[in-house]
Write a structure and sequence with these properties.
The chain has 519 residues and is an all-alpha fold. 74% of the residues lie in helices and 0% in strands. Helix 3 packs across helix 4 and helix 10 packs across helix 11.
Length: 519
Amino acid sequence: MNNKVHQTCVLSCLALACYLPPVYLFTDALMLPKFYLLLLSVGCGGVMVIVASRQGWGEPAGKECLRTGSVAFVAVSVLECLYVVMLMAMEGMPSRGVCGTFENPAGLALGLCVAIPLAVHLMLTERKRWRQGMWVVALLLMVTVLWFTRSRTGLICLSVFLVVYACTGIHRLVCGKRVRLLLYAVLLAAASAGMAAHVRSHKTDSTSGRAFILMRSWELAMEHPFAGHGHGGFGREYMLRQAAFFREHPDSRHAMLADDIRHPLNEFLLLWVEYGVAGPVLLLAVLLLPLRMALKRRREELRVMALPLVAVCLFSCFSYPFPYPVAWVVACTAWMLMPAGIRLGSERTGRVALHAVLLASVALIVLTVNDAVHEHLWYRAYRHSFREEGALDEYGALHGYFCHDPYFLYSYAMASFKRGDLDRAERMIAECGKFRNGYNRELLAGDICLYRKDFAGAAAHYRLANDMCPVRFAPLEGLYKVYDATGDTLRRQEVAARIAQKQVKVRSWDVERIRGRCQ
């Protein structure tokens, strides 16, 4: 195969990585396989560059690679949309919005917000009418599915795109500078008013919950504004801060919205909490420098990536794009297109650079495969923990590799608890607390203490879990069991009364079971 075929294969794999369907070989079947395919594609692409240079195929042209990658990404996005339409026809419209091959509508909305401007570029640069029509159909399909995601950030991105395209049309059609500025101002005002009205009138509870999370996260950031709380600091500190707030404000209207939070829904704030003010400044530089160069130097390749970068910027402000591969693909592509042409200097320097690329690519492939193997072994241990005695030995063999992963430690503690190994379960849940504190961890820690007859410890964990998420019933059931086991009739009756009077956010069999038991 020649260089163009290799190039097309690698770019198609990168596009597919952003929408890869679930692969049920890992505990995370949705996102982890996407990143594995992304990393393997990058590694294979690096090897391809070395092979191409050795065989004299020449360097791939940036414009050609960008067009091939755009076609591949839009094509895969259309397939994702068709999959979503099929699911809607079979299962109906989900209440929270369509997700496709993602765990959350935000992931699908981000991918479509990147694909839409690429499809517009392909449509505008296409000379054949039938192909232009094909891109128009693809655009209509993607915009329709984006609407069904019910993602407010996605709709904000779409509004920004429309304003940009309208301003571009005004710039070409209207001659007077003052008239242009007036039309620009009217467009911006109308778009801003429309977006504000939509946000205020839709998902008001979600908007209020986001504001609450941002305020608690801002408090964390201001505690160590320059040094931050360290890597993983948000996971260690946020839920403790949320528990402290509800302990001080038990009647807060936010109590009914409280959940086990893993992300502040703002990438800049997350970096500030963990790494200090340098974190968001670095992310701003990564996202805005390519945009500045696209406007300043007017390079066509960078201008194509401008609106996808804008989408990543907006999602960074209102959501969490970087747990999804597409955000990394957009940011890295923009930075690869930034240099107008880098000369390596001497031939010897060029050879050293090629060897470095080869070593880095091979290392990336090896590390990715190694991690995938260990993740699959974790998945097997998790599956075996339900029915086989040797599961804890499998977990123990993996502990050295995953000793800094709070989700593995929690899974190991849960498996140990189910198997009755309370000493090991207590050690693992304590290790988990070094990296992440949250509602589920406190609940499991309370259960472990309860079965060990450490009633004071169990009550402390259940109270903390209740403070973290006051809307949940399980912590109150745990406290009821503690007071029942210790013969504290008065406190048991108080907890039973709280359960009976507690407002139910979502009715379920488990809630009715707890209410029936704790009477």
